[in-house]
Amino acid sequence: MLRRLARRVLSQHGYTVLEAGDGDEALTVAEATGSPIDLVLTDVVMPNLSGPELGERISALQPLAKVVYMSGYLDADGASSAIARGAEFIAKPFTPSAVIAKIRGVLDGAP
Questions:
Q1: Of 31, 28, 30, 26, which is closest to residue 42 (Cα–Cα)?
Q2: Quick one: which of 7, 25, 34, 40 is 20 to 30 A from 60 by CA?
Q3: What distance, in Å, lies between the first and last C-alpha atoms of the chain?
Q4: Cα angle, residue 69 at apex, residues 84 and 20 outer, rounded to 5°
Q5: How many CB atoms lie within 10 A of CB 91?
Q6: CATH code for the domain of 47
């Protein structure tokens, strides 16, 4: 449900969205796209492949892609360590305006 909401909100704000149900599917989508990926919004905890693992593998495929992690649990696998490494993060639950502001800020390079 959150994925559908994020897709709708991002699309309404002019972003092109590639959607995947889990980390493995996200890698498949990333490998299949012929276009650069500017940003990946991923949950920290997912089936098959964690968000931090996905972030590393996407970075290998698309070195310029920025990654924003989201989680409702700061103690989730990888959430605390990703934040400690300075990764971009948004806590769930978030509002549509908060996720748009976060994504715009990351794409613009805002601190």
A1: 26
A2: 7
A3: 29
A4: 150
A5: 14
A6: 3.40.50.2300
SS (H, E, C) the chain: CHHHHHHHHHHHCCCCCCCCCCHHHHHHHHHHCCCCCCEEEEECCCCCCCHHHHHHHHHHHCCCCEEEEEECCCCCCCHHHHHHCCCEEEECCCCHHHHHHHHHHHHHCCC
Q: How many angstroms separate the Cα of 27 from the Cα of each of 37, 59, 60?
A: 12, 11, 11
Q: How many domains does the chain have?
A: 1
Return the pLDDT at 82: 60
What is the span of the domain harbouring residue 103?
2-108
Give the whole-angstrom CA distance, residue 81 versus residue 61: 22
- Place 3 in a pLDDT band, splitting at 50, 70 and 90: confident
